[in-house]
Amino acid sequence: MIKVGRSFFLTGRPGIGKTTVLLKIVKIIEEEGLKVGGIISREVRKGGSRIGFKLIDLNSGREGWLAHVKQPEGPRVGKYRVCMEDLESIGVEAILNAVEEADIIVIDEVGPMEMFSERFKKAVAKALNSEKIVLGTVHYRIKDSFAAKVKAKGEVKVIEVTIGNREALSENVVHKILENLCEHAAYERQSIS
């Protein structure tokens, strides 16, 4: 059972700064002494044009392609093909390792490209059903039923990133996460005694 308010997902229009806000939150959380694990997705540009998206394991620093315009095989999303091998060997493994080893699990992002992997879906479900706080991003206009369930789940707080709120949002989310951790620790101490 997912604890109410233990999962926070940022959403918003493409290019609004979801990953930037997420990275600010991660930096502050790490400065608080908490261990963060999971994945970050970054767009890659060449000559002013976007050519693909990289996956980065926050713990190991391993990188791979989520999708690329010149990826020879894999499911197609727009002009990109998804690199299933990197998504599963780097992305899925990073999430599963974070479930075991981290205080906070980061999943950037739950979107159409990632939804081609059943292993990715299962790793996200495992993270959401763990006792850990999950911090992630979810695609703004998601049509896939799995990602729509993540976005619609009452236990998951979905926060829209806008031009007006993105500067203050990282501090606000960190406050909610730390508050949640304190409440959870107090509950654990109470149930032990």
How is this structure best described in words?
By secondary structure, the chain is α/β, with parallel strands linked by helices. The protein has a single domain, classed as Rossmann fold (3-Layer(aba) Sandwich). It contains five helices and nine strands, in the order βαβββββαβαβαβα. The protein has helices spanning 18-31, 84-101, 118-128, 145-152, 166-192; strands at 7-11, 36-46, 49-57, 63-68, 76-77, 80-82, 104-110, 133-138, 156-160. Strands 5-6-4-3-2-7-8-1-9 form a nine-stranded mixed beta sheet, with helices on both faces. A hairpin with a 2-residue loop joins β5 and β6 (80-82). α1 (18-31) packs across α5 (166-192) and α2 (84-101) runs parallel beside α3 (118-128). Mean pLDDT is 88; it is low at 1-5.
Q: Which features would summarize this protein structure in a list?
A:
globular, 9 strands, Rossmann fold, 28% strand, 9-stranded mixed β-sheet, 193 residues, alpha/beta, 40% helix, single chain, disordered N terminus
Care to give the gist of this entry?
The chain is of the alpha/beta class and 193 residues long. Helices cover 40% and strands 28% of the residues. The two termini are 23 Å apart.
